[in-house]
Amino acid sequence: MTRFVKSPKEVASGLLLVFLAAFFAWQAMGLPMGRAVRMGPGYFPMILAGLLGLFGLIVLLSGLTLHPVEDEDETQRIGFSRWPWVPLGLVTLALVVFGLGIRPLGLGPSMGLAVFLSTLASRRFRLTTALLSSFIMVAFSWAVFIKGLGLPLPMLGPWLGGY
Amino acid sequence: MEIFDNLALGFSVAVSFQNIFYCFIGVLLGTLIGVLPGLGPVPTIAMLLPITFGLPPVSALIMLSGIYYGAQYGGSTTAILINLPGESSSVVTAIDGYQMARKGRAGAALATAALGSFFAGSVATFLLAVFAPPLADLALKFGPPEYFALMVLGLVASVALAAGSVVKALAMVVLGILLGLSGQDVYTGTPRFTFDMLELADGIAFVALAMGVFGIGEIVRNLEDEHTRTVMVQKVKGLLLSRDDIRRIIGPILRGTFIGSFLGILPGGGAILSSFSAYSIEKKISRHPEQFGKGAIEGVAGPESANNAGAQTSFIPMLTLGIPSNPVMALMIGALIIQGIVPGPNVVNEQPTLFWGIIASMWIGNFMLVVLNLPLIGIWVRLLTVPYHILFPLIVGFCCIGVYSVNNNAIDVFTMALFGVVGYVLVKLDCEPAPLLLGFIIGPMLEEYLRRAMLISRGDPTVFFTRPISATMLGLAVLALVVVLLPSVRKKREEAFQE
């Protein structure tokens, strides 16, 4: 079975694109279509979803072959096992924590947490530099964004006795 | 001459204390990020977009443009000194520039790069001043069908000229348009793709998408293989060029400027394609092609002039037609929209201080760059020793506060997190995310013009082919696609991008 897959990358991209096309088409289905002369909000998205699905199919088919291949092309492998899962997860987590914390905790703690979490993503993590980076970034964002630009953001949020 | 009056107006705007200050900040930051590998102009401009809200539009655009062309200068410094191109457009400069540095001629290479860039930047800015207003006037005569066709042509051309699979790039454009259509429909107010979330009523925030895909995605990619950068830098001396050097670089600089100016206007062209083309042309017409790759001064002069000229002229379609030719220009359009200015041919006539102020500031900025770069090279090189594992958490912090401050809305931060993952996955699957950003910016305009065109033609789609200008442009778009997809051209194209 896998022998008919010439390029896992192409097949995966194709599947992803077809899936996205189906998703957008499904979403657009609930919108009024209108007619060509007076297009409704669903008209153009539906055309685009069709195009996206077509392109996705082409990409998908170009990754397949009828002649079974023996040696796989190394550059076409996806290599999930070699993806930097931990850094990817940590950086994403840092952003989510910032987003969740900015209201209740305020700018100071959420910025500190976000920077600290992302320092963990590096293999050359050292606690002292990490704490120092977080502190510098908190101080910097206070000076620039709250004092300098006057953003209406509290340093400490309501959960920590701020406003 | 009208142009001189306009330029005088521009300079009167650009030399105000505030604008000189922001121009300086822009080129300084540009050089800085140009020197630092792993941080390019796209994430930097995306990060700074929120800060520019409080500024007047002219100052904001002056600073952001400074970052772009400043990065072209900075990138060449590291390419020459340590064979590490800070920007993708200086990859070619590294070939001969680094060889010159190894032969002890780093000073001459740097001086050539700076002089070539300055000359090309000035000429290209002049071209921008001459050609932009008539082009804008022409575009003002366009009706909705012509506009629609022009945008399709722009998107297709940017796909055809970029590296990688054409079908995937087209898919990215379409995906970008779909994402760009999210939020309330302009005509009916119906929410689209918002999942009944009130926070998404205005659609996906442009800054969140750009920062996610190009900022966060890039960081994760850099964390893939962390290696210690050992920096060995020779002492730079002898910035003065000999008479023989000057004789040898005049031709390449002129040719590079010409090629770069032309390719910069084309969508998808810009700085990268220009420098590659200039290098191969210099190599082809040189009487000593064997010297190339071993420290030929022509191999530095040509590409460096071309990439700067290209960076400058890529402003032409952005300022006159409202069509971005590369991701940086897409961000500029985003900045204009945020400032409440509708991008398009009206900018030249309705915002003369903005348009001419930016142009005048480019000369000032290019001059500042020569002054900044040559004497301060030592400082720039020392910056290279800042390790990435210190740098990237600070970038993450910047992205957070930057994207949050746009609307004071946490949903934008989550959107950025999502698109960070999306950006990384796309790159891993060899899908270039740049066309996605172009589609995202153009999407809403494209739909608007399509709807208007169909309205005036009473629902008859042949309107695009019966009006000569629009038919020509759509024909060109089809032609570009056919040519790129032809098997023979396809092979050549892949070879060309292999280098």
From TrEMBL, chain A:
Keyword Membrane set for record: yes
UniProt KW keywords: Membrane, Transmembrane, Transmembrane helix
A Pfam family that the UniProt record links to this protein: TctB
UniProt feature coiled coil, ranges: none
Domain DUF1468, residue spans: 13-154
InterPro entries registered for this protein in UniProt: DUF1468 (IPR009936)
Key word Transmembrane present: yes
Annotated TM spans: 46-64, 85-105, 125-146
UniProt name for this protein: Membrane protein
Classification lineage: Bacteria, Pseudomonadati, Pseudomonadota, Alphaproteobacteria, Hyphomicrobiales
UniProtKB/TrEMBL annotation, chain B:
Pfam annotation, one family: TctA
Keywords: Membrane, Transmembrane, Transmembrane helix
Keyword Transmembrane included in the entry's annotation: yes
Keyword hit for Acyltransferase: no
Annotated DUF112 domain residues: 20-438
InterPro entries linked to this entry: DUF112_TM
TM annotation in the entry: 20-39, 45-69, 108-132, 147-179, 200-220, 258-279, 328-348, 354-374, 386-404, 470-489
Protein name in UniProt: DUF112 domain-containing protein
Originating species: Ancylobacter dichloromethanicus
